[in-house]
C-alpha cells in the first residue's frame, strides 16, 4: 500500500476522533488512555471476524444464502451485534472503573475512540483490497458510520455510569443494554441496506446516512454538548 492510500485509510478515522475530542470542553482525557482505547478497538477486529465467520456458518446451514431472511440476520446478528459487542466489551473493560471517567461526555469520547480504532484497522484491510475508490467511498460512509454508532454507544454508556452513582441499578442495567442494542440496530440497518444490493434500499441507505450526519455534525443535542454531558459522576 502506498502512502496516499494508507493516509486515506487512516486519516478520516483520526479526523472524526479529533472532532469529538474537541467537543469535550470540560476536562480533556489523558492521551495514554485514549491511545489504549484506540488500540483495543483495533484489536477487536480479530475476535469480531472470528464471530462473524462462525455466525455466517450457522446462518448458511439454516437459511438459503442471499435470501432476505439470511441477509437480515447476517446484517443485524452476524455483523452488527458481533462488532458492537466487541467494542462495548473493550470499552467497559478499560473505562468502567477508571478514575478519569468522571463526566458523562467522557463516555462518548471513549466509545468513539474504540470505534475509530476498529474502523481504521478494518478500513486498511478494505483499502488494501479495493484501492483508491474504496478509500474515498469509505471515508464518507463506513468511517463516520462507525463513529456515529460509537456516539450512541457512549450516550447510553455514560448514562449507565451516572445511574450507577445514583445507586439506581435498574436504570443502570437498562442503559448498559441500550449501549449495545441501539448501535447494533443502527449498524444492522446500515449493513442491511447495503447487503440487499437493491436500488430502493440504496436510496433508503443514503437518506439514513444523511440523517446520521445531521444528528452527529449539526444537530448537537444536549447529550453531545452541554446539558447532561456536564454531569459530574464522582465527588
Structure description:
There is one protein chain. With 235 residues, this protein is mainly alpha-helical. The chain has one domain. The chain has nine helices and no strands. The chain is globular, with a radius of gyration of 18 Å. The model has no long low-confidence stretch (mean pLDDT 91).
What distance separates the N and C termini?
Answer: 49 Å
Number of strands: 0
Mean pLDDT across the residues is 91
- The helix-strand sequence is HHHHHHHHH
What is the count of structural domains?
1
Query: In DSSP terms, counting alpha (H) and pi (I) runs of 4 or more, how many helices?
Result: 9
General form = globular
**Beta-strand fraction estimate:** under 5%
Helix content: over 70%
Given the helix and strand composition, which structural class is it?
Answer: mainly alpha
Rg, please?
A: 18 Å
Major sheet description: none
Instruction: List low-confidence stretches.
Output: none
Short description:
With 235 residues, this protein is an all-alpha fold. Helices cover 79% and strands 0% of the residues.
Amino acid at each position: 500500500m502506498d502512502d496516499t492510500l494508507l493516509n486515506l485509510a487512516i486519516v478520516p478515522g483520526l479526523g472524526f476522533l479529533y472532532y469529538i475530542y474537541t467537543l469535550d470542553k470540560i476536562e480533556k482525557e489523558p492521551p495514554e488512555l485514549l491511545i489504549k482505547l484506540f488500540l483495543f478497538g483495533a484489536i477487536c477486529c480479530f475476535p469480531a471476524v472470528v464471530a462473524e465467520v462462525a455466525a455466517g456458518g450457522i446462518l448458511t446451514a439454516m437459511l438459503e444464502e442471499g435470501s432476505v431472511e439470511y441477509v437480515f440476520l447476517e446484517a443485524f446478528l452476524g455483523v452488527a451485534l458481533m462488532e458492537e459487542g466487541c467494542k462495548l466489551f473493550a470499552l467497559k473493560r478499560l473505562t468502567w472503573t477508571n478514575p478519569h471517567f468522571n463526566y458523562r461526555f467522557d463516555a462518548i469520547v471513549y466509545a468513539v475512540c474504540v470505534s475509530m480504532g476498529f474502523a481504521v484497522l478494518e478500513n486498511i484491510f478494505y483499502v488494501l483490497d479495493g484501492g483508491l475508490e474504496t478509500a474515498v467511498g469509505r471515508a464518507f460512509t463506513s468511517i463516520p458510520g462507525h463513529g456515529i454508532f460509537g456516539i450512541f454507544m457512549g450516550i447510553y454508556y455514560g448514562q449507565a455510569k451516572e445511574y450507577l452513582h445514583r445507586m439506581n441499578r435498574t436504570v443502570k442495567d437498562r442503559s448498559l443494554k441500550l449501549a449495545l442494542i441501539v448501535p447494533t440496530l443502527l449498524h444492522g440497518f446500515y449493513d442491511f441496506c447495503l447487503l440487499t444490493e437493491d436500488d430502493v434500499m440504496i436510496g433508503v441507505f443514503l437518506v439514513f446516512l444523511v440523517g446520521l450526519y445531521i444528528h452527529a455534525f449539526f444537530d448537537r443535542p444536549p447529550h453531545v454538548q452541554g446539558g447532561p454531558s456536564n454531569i459530574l459522576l464522582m465527588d
